[in-house]
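Recall the central idea of this unit: under ordinary conditions, the amino acid sequence of a chain determines the structure it adopts. In this exercise we apply that idea directly, starting from the sequence alone.
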Amino acid sequence: MKTYTYTHPQSIEYTGDIRIFDESNQVVAIARRTYDHIIKKKLDRFLDFRYFLKYEVNNSEGKKAFLVKKKIRRGRLWFEGLDVISNKKYMITYENWRIGIPELYITDGQIKLQLNKEFEEWSEFLYEDQVIARWKASFVEEQFDIILQIDEKSPIQSVEFFVGISQATLFVGA
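Accordingly, the structure predicted from this sequence is:
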């Protein structure tokens, strides 16, 4: 598995750049939480910084590569992802949440990934019942040390894809 690491301050409202490093300690992507305008940011403060959730992940050249945004309509919650380079859209939805065991699924209409969310262990991305990537955040001295691993057999090799979805669904969450 390819391994990527990054740190994040303990506050979920942090909007600065988060540099993602590969095994050679080279910056491969930069993630940041963004707001469309200042009114949404101020309003989000009253909603515990969990309502207007949007992450932008840029590649190493600083070009926008992946966006993920939280959506809430009629009491239903989901996330939308967009691979900016290929213009491929992804839906990230909770299934079985009414029975108390929510599972996250990610689909572009052709492939379907399952994301098993764990709080203190590895959260695993599954494709055809095989682990293709995993993500883990450990709280160390006022910040989170985060590890992302992507298997060579994963149908998606984009670090921006996995970082964006992980930050939105696992780090900040619902």
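The mean pLDDT is 84.
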